[in-house]
Description:
- The protein has one domain (about 1-160): Porin.
- The protein has helices at about 10-15, 140-145; strands spanning about 1-10, 20-35, 35-50, 60-75, 85-100, 105-120, 130-140, 150-160.
- The model has no long low-confidence stretch (mean pLDDT about 85).
- It has about 170 residues and is mainly beta.
- The protein is elongated.
Amino acid sequence: MHFKGGLLIPTGNFGKTAKTGWMMSADVTVGLIGETLGIRVEPDYIAVNGRYATLGRGYVQNFEIASVMGNVVYTFRKATAWIRPYVLGGAGIVRVAEVIWLGAFSYVKPAYCGGVGVAMRVGTGSSRLFAEGKVVTVDTYRINGVSTTFVPVRVGVRFATGWGLRQL
């Protein structure tokens, strides 16, 4: 199990309407083949302040983003290595809520992601500190004519759960 927190950097057109925000997350990653390939289920909560008017709905005071993503994770080194770089990619569902001056507007859309990270073993057990970044694109084209893209950059800690799952 991973616990993480970090920054969310809005990019593209989303970067024009949103400032850098914060996020928190947890996930479970289960090893599939050997010690290098696994799957991850990851819920996130993200809060971002708005910049100015968007889509004619008024001033956006903030954005709240909740997502559940499923990722495939590939690590480049065995579990016994002190440092393990990895790549990940996947898809999921994202709910974006825009809180505006006179109310709120929200939508649920599919999203796609890809990223890289590095994990460093702490002590003699399986606990690790890690840092990762990825690009997430939410399919909002039919709502506002553009996709919503952001880059979550996170750090966290992973520890063995004892649930009998083979972890990466």
